[in-house]
Write a structure and sequence with these properties.
mainly alpha, globular, 16 helices
Length: 333
């Protein structure tokens, strides 16, 4: 994949700081040792020579550790990112999460649960008045479209699942539009959409969902035409690699569908495949001397690191076999 690199000297200092932080990301051999830990307590001991040492003393504190590091990471982005569109891109998952909570609570006529995410373009507490008074000018068009379509969809179907996937579809459209100033980020977002669509298709097959959910859930804008997946909706899962012929996904998907009948192993392997496809794109930012791209890549790599650590802690608490844990470890950043 050839991507045009536009150097932005405004980020020269910030990129220098990010290059130092990149060296402290956890590497594959360390993950292997974490997977070999015989208990959650040993897992904590293994983290004492990493940047997580000051965040955790006991295994049960791992959710607090992840929350604290996330907060630090968000502060780092606020400090170093100058372009509003880039911050909006990174905050988009939180914005659409908050939007989802408010819309669903309005539809169900209940008080929204206190599960809002604070690092967002739109303040969580603002959503009540925005929805109540229809103050659409205060939010981006993609969010307005998500609200209008999800509400209409619910009243037509009475199916809350369709509300969720309608909002997700608009989230990806929003991210794709926001990513346009950076050719690297735009290509990365197309990859994310492809992976989202493939996962949506696999969950549709696994859960034997209504075909309408698949049609509504698949997103335009990736490199793989969603029609490819719709056409094989009723075919065996083994047909998926063939539908992805001549794409970067064909071989890896072909390898893991062999484990389709073992759901735990299959979805663990899928998470690894997803990360192995994502990480090479993040690593491409080493060619940027300046620019916002290395900062975004570090944010995404660190989020991946947090997801991996969360998985390993949960696996250790639930005594998942070490070999299965190691199946999840990708070739990290």
């Amino acid at each position: 994949m050839l991507i045009e690199t536009l150097q932005d000297e405004r980020y020269a200092f910030a990129v220098g700081k990010i290059r130092v932080l990149e060296t402290r990301l956890i590497k594959t051999p360390k993950y292997q040792r974490l997977a070999d830990a015989v208990s959650p307590d040993e897992l904590v001991s293994q983290l004492q020579d990493t940047d997580y040492a000051g965040y955790i003393e006991r295994p049960e504190e791992y959710p607090s550790m992840i929350k604290s590091v996330n907060k630090w990471l968000q502060g780092l982005m606020d400090k170093y990112i100058i372009d509003a569109w880039a911050l909006d891109f990174l905050k988009s998952h939180n914005d659409f999460h908050n939007l989802r909570v408010w819309v669903k609570s309005k539809l169900q006529e209940v008080k929204p649960p206190n599960i809002f995410m604070g690092w967002a373009k739109i303040e969580p507490e603002s959503w009540d008045k925005i929805l109540e008074e229809e103050r659409w000018s205060e939010i981006p068009a993609s969010m307005r479209d998500a609200i209008e379509e999800s509400i209409t969809t619910y009243y037509m179907s009475k199916d809350m699942r369709l509300v969720d996937i309608t909002i997700d579809r608009h989230l990806w459209r929003y991210r794709l539009e926001l990513s346009k100033p950076s050719s690297w980020l735009h290509e990365f977002t197309k990859l994310e959409i492809d992976l989202y669509n493939i996962e949506t298709f696999m969950r549709y097959k696994f859960m034997k969902l209504d075909r309408k959910i698949l049609h509504t859930g698949l997103v335009d804008g990736g490199t793989v035409d969603r029609i490819r997946l719709i056409e094989i909706a009723d075919d065996p899962i083994e047909s998926l690699p063939m539908a992805l012929r001549f794409t970067p996904y064909e071989y890896m998907i072909g390898e893991i569908v062999k484990d389709w009948k073992d759901p735990m192993k299959f979805f663990i392997l899928w998470d690894k495949v997803r990360d192995n496809l994502t990480l090479p794109i993040l690593k491409m930012t080493i060619y940027y001397t300046f620019g916002v791209e290395p900062i975004i890549a570090y944010f995404l790599a660190r989020k991946l690191e947090l997801r991996l650590l969360k998985f390993i802690f949960i696996a250790k608490f639930n005594e998942i076999p070490t070999d299965l844990i190691k199946c999840r470890i990708p070739d990290v950043y």
